[in-house]
């Protein structure tokens, strides 16, 4: 029997040095030995929670051909993109050219309800405008379950829809362009907007509290 024990457990019997003192069956369920085998997963992942709230700016990796041309400095301005009517599919392209000067404003956030079999489903619709006060403006509309998500999506869509604004003069061509070159009319639904050229010393012809949306 002694020879059998030494054969199974090594030179020191069932609890040989190669088996951790218990034949390789320690730390299992119902073994009654604590601290071996059960605490392996308790400490994993504890250090990752402290960094969840921090958002790091990652390097822009283009995914479109236009993005690669912009990052390689082969396209040096937005006017070159507008000249050939190239579609902009990445918002980072706008950030690359106008990132520091862009200003965004949330025009309106309205709840949207849809009747389903399970009840009413409520979502939020955000209207965001963005521009650089120097001839570029865009409008984005996004609907989502959360208002913050809708605003972020509307900002991205507003960047993708940025268009150049043709500016001109009223009267003599003195100084920089300060107004629209001619009378412009736009309509969306039941709302109609008229833009009329004004002198450079005056503000735009609009009421004190215009409607945002």
Automatic annotation (TrEMBL):
<dbReference type="InterPro" id="IPR014721">
    <property type="entry name" value="Ribsml_uS5_D2-typ_fold_subgr"/>
</dbReference>
<feature type="domain" description="S5 DRBM">
    <location>
        <begin position="102"/>
        <end position="165"/>
    </location>
</feature>
<dbReference type="Pfam" id="PF00333">
    <property type="entry name" value="Ribosomal_S5"/>
</dbReference>
<protein>
    <recommendedName>
        <fullName>S5 DRBM domain-containing protein</fullName>
    </recommendedName>
</protein>
<dbReference type="InterPro" id="IPR000851">
    <property type="entry name" value="Ribosomal_uS5"/>
</dbReference>
<keyword id="KW-0687">Ribonucleoprotein</keyword>
<feature type="region of interest" description="Disordered">
    <location>
        <begin position="33"/>
        <end position="53"/>
    </location>
</feature>
<dbReference type="InterPro" id="IPR005711">
    <property type="entry name" value="Ribosomal_uS5_euk/arc"/>
</dbReference>
<feature type="compositionally biased region" description="Basic residues">
    <location>
        <begin position="43"/>
        <end position="52"/>
    </location>
</feature>
<dbReference type="GO" id="GO:0003723">
    <property type="term" value="F:RNA binding"/>
</dbReference>
<dbReference type="GO" id="GO:0006412">
    <property type="term" value="P:translation"/>
</dbReference>
<dbReference type="InterPro" id="IPR013810">
    <property type="entry name" value="Ribosomal_uS5_N"/>
</dbReference>
<comment type="subunit">
    <text>Component of the small ribosomal subunit. Interacts with zinc finger protein ZNF277 (via zinc-finger domains); the interaction is direct; the interaction is extra-ribosomal. Interaction with ZNF277 competes with the binding of RPS2 to protein arginine methyltransferase PRMT3.</text>
</comment>
<dbReference type="GO" id="GO:0003735">
    <property type="term" value="F:structural constituent of ribosome"/>
</dbReference>
<keyword id="KW-0689">Ribosomal protein</keyword>
<dbReference type="GO" id="GO:0022627">
    <property type="term" value="C:cytosolic small ribosomal subunit"/>
</dbReference>
